[in-house]
## 1
Amino acid sequence: MSMPLPDPMILPSRRSCPFDPPEEYARLRAERPMSRLRLPGGRIGWLVTRYEDVRAALADPRTSPPLIQVTPATELPLPETELEVPPGVFSALDPPEQSRYRRLVSRYFTRKRCREIAPRLEQIIDEQLTAMIDHGSPADLVQWFSQPIPTRVITEMLGITEQQRPDYQRWILAMLSLDTGPEQLREARDGLYGGLGELVRARRVEPRGDILSDLLHGDTPLKDDEVVGIGALLLIAGLETTANMLGLGAFALLTNPAQAAALRADEGLLDVAIEELLRYLTIVQFGLTRTAREDLEIAGRTVRAGETLIVSLAAANRDPELYTDPDRLDLRREQAPHLAFGHGVHQCLGAQLARVEMKLAFGALLRRLPDLRLAVPPEEVPTAGEDKVFYGVHSLPVAW
């Protein structure tokens, strides 16, 4: 006779340390790596916390990525009547349709392409650091550094002008804030899709050297609404993710001065350090959502067709079965595979660009501001807990 399952739990969210996932994950990973989960809408799903199970769930072709994002308090987007996948938003599609879009877009984010645009990335980083230094100490590193760098990079790649940039940043931040109400969420979405629609129509008539123009006029031209959807996806994925890694990563370095000093003394450590920061911080704080398309088994538990899986990247990246002393930041850690960018056919398309941005940005920050320090006690740095989809810092007051 099988043992009854424990009562469903609520998605953990409370942190005792700004750099660590909720402590509950460690217990679940050891005792119940597949846990019954009560979703905000009342449905019952599963929480997956062990590295090998998370990786298996993400690679399993029997799981699909729904458009919703599950958080402890809600499921986005709202309302449910608007859950039809917009054209071009291939992150919520399955192969082969997903593969067709991904092949077209992936060429803009290859290692070769990232090397080609590295000089422009360095210029943007240098301009932002110069502006912050000219502003004077103290300053908010999020305002001057971590937020504008990836915003400028991805908007330039899409052909969005400097004058248009604040609108797109405002729309994206509203869409990824858990404090945004349904009406405001709808307004932000309409603004984003409306703005991109105007931009795509202009590029249809007068193409320029940007991703949107290329998708409209390339070897495999796409329809306007498909390009709008791809543009929205790239903005959402490329703006806030890297911004949060830069801000939270800088916070972690400034509270680990010995590690920062080692990195400053030897920039050859940067590649390894970036991977460790990605593993250690894992900004996708509530995990990735998947839906079982048919019955399947994970960690000895049967997941029924239609049930929701929340696969925790943060818990997987602290699994002691894979990492020695996983709760310690070690910028010299021998590299082991992490899941900060996900896994499988839906692994983050912009992973290489994010790595290059982080490497160049952190290298320049440590080099140009050797005396950089927090301007407030660490406990006064405001972190994005349950109010944002991606974990990070709202601001980072620094001095030098």
Note: The chain has one domain: 24-399.
## 2
Amino acid sequence: MIKIVERASFKRLRFQTMMDTIFFILSKVVQFCIEPLNWVILFIILSLIFLILRKLALCKRFLLLALFDLLVVGWLPTSEMGLRYLEGIIPKTSLAGLSENDLGGIIILGGAIEGGQIAIDRGEVSIYSSAERVTKAFELVRKYPNLPFIFSGYSGRISHKGISESEAFKQLIQEQGFTELTDKTAHYENQSRNTYENALYVKPIIEEFGKKNESGALRPWLLVTSASHMYRSAKIFEKQSIAVIPVPVDYQTAASLRWTEFDLVDGAQNWNKLIHEFVGLFAYWITGKI
């Protein structure tokens, strides 16, 4: 009877792992397909096809669509409106009145570090534009030296080579001279590929090493991630019954929109973040993860 139960549990776990992998790949494909800048390539290809077929009217239409698409991506208010809304849902937390006795630990989500093959080939760990996740982590680890912290992240890429993000962060921690860290305070989760798996895999670590209050309940953990990503992250951790105090960083928008600015690079980055979050929110909502 016990063996039958174990087999059933193993099959359920294997099925869930397979479904999580399909979910992860599908979310990447959907995001790629609906990002506005990627449509420019499609419009130009279609215009070339119609040019070869001597359908000049259709060729012109798709060229105009490609031009309009570039204008939408490059004119910054088009992406900043949605991104500013996402960044403002979760307010910035004041840490001034929080002591170590109020907190259970610190969670730092991956997404800012380039590990992979580059780190191996070049011998240096690179940090993305979301570098504030790393710098804020260093600040909090120094501010609360006795609290446990967890860096959570393997890789957000479908095909990953080289070291994981958590291994890269561990290297950065050592390079910054955090010699006082011990196995009880420093923890590195290196399996998660997305935010849902972040929460899923850090939960056992939190339950084992998290600080507790006098009644024996786990204290809330500081959660460090980008401001645009904080709403989805907080909802996922809430679904996993993990109490967190949001520490949003890496803001990309100001209090007012830049109505007169056109920048394809900034616009493309904004749209990437915006589409990534809305795809994630929708996918997690329909699958019951938030």
Note: Residues 2-88+262-286 form one domain.
## 3
Amino acid sequence: MKTLAASIFATADEVVIDSLISCFANPDPTIRDKAAFTLWSDGLRGNHLSPALLRHAAARLSAVLAAPDDEAGFYKPFAALALSEVARTDRVTSWMSDTERHKLAETGAAYLRDVTDYRGFTPDEGWRHGVAHGSDLALQLALNPRLARADAERLLAAIAAQVAPDASDASPFYHYGEPARLARPVLSLATRADIDDAAWAAWFGALHPDHGARWRDAYASDAGLAAIHNTTAFANAIHVAATEAPDPQIKRLAPLAADLLKALP
């Protein structure tokens, strides 16, 4: 596939990019995932696109994320995953301006914060995985040392909104690895020197049970049980990774995650 990607992307123009992006909405997982996304990832990781075409791709994918949800639900999650590959190229070799990077962080944070389709894998249809793919975009941004502090805070706010979402219809019980994916950008952002211990304590503190209806008698409703389940999985993912991390900046999250676990009913 890498050879095919090199051949396609070597002569790619905006029409080719747009055609490939449109495949991310295809209901056939073989076309959407195995063919289109694999080509996309190999092409971008092979450094085959110019900054001009990368900017075009970022604009097209950002427009998909800003559009209303489609019923099938494939397009946005795969656009977010494809956009994570665009963000990765800037992390590896900087080509975005500070303004462009800020806009991408705004787009990624808004998408992750607003995900309400919690479908994951469906037989014969494949993956949607909006929370996980939004987290993948957040991770690539979080790994970029040129990301502004304000944009790091935007990403953290979006992640917090999805740790234990209180959905209006039915709160999801994460079981497709979402908590671990949400944890990854948090662990990366912990390496930043400009987010101090007090800021991290405040962020984790906001995840503690509040006085809302779902927490008052958490074991008596699906909403409460989902909140316990999802928060436990996220806190465990942070705690294990931070405890084992050699970086003291990451290690400081371990006791905060432990406190979150102790605070759960």
Note: The mean pLDDT is 96.
## 4
Amino acid sequence: MSPVSRRQAVAGLAALPFAASSAAPRAFGASGRCFVLVHGAWHGGWCWKKIRPRLMAAGHEVYTPTLTGLGERAHLLTADVGLDTHIQDVVAMLEVEDLRDVVLVGHSYGGMVITGVAQRAPQRLAQLIYLDAFMPDPGRSLADYTRPAGAVTSPAPPSTTTSSAAAPARDWRVPPRSTAEEFGVRERADVDWVQARLGSQSGKTFGQPLPTAPDVPANLPRAYIQCTTDAWFAEAAARAARLGYPTRTLFGGGHDVMISEPVRLTTLLLELAG
């Protein structure tokens, strides 16, 4: 083989992966949907470990971001981390990955986040699914919804040190309000696994309200899955039904159904996403 033909052959072989890559359809999302699953307070992207492979096996693309200051990003936790930080986490991921027609799922506090994302980047979304989650209006914070239910009325609880000369100091770190078992996790191995990963969260995330504008586009489909009878989730589910959103119940698995009831939850997500 001549030097010229050898160079041509090598160049042709080198180009093959790129040509195949541009011509071949994506492994996921070509005929399925793109799911972005946003965890709740004190959790991380790790909590979807039983859901992600099931959705992928059904032919869907799945992203499970961890919000700043939690999970493997716990080293980034500061008092300045707020709801706006977590909204930006998800918006940035949608933009960097160039995701479109996304089914955006928010669990618990994650309902605050996905609503803010829908305010910022509705053109990238196909649907919002609230999973036992807060479903806030613009200008409202999570604390606005928990306060009437008799829960914590401030985003940061008092510290253990008090002084007679001054009001009690307050820590900006908010520890988990429940244990893994209280979140509904049942299997011993799962309880240990979850409990080891639950972490504190910045109080600012609970007290910072959503922007007052823009509103979430009225034509963006939304659905609700209620898993517990906690007052704020029951209220959100009832409001979703009044607004005409598809609503489902998944009782019996507690709040963390992504861990305690992965098969039933996957079935519901696929049903609601069509």
Note: The CA atoms of residues 98 and 124 lie 8 Å apart.
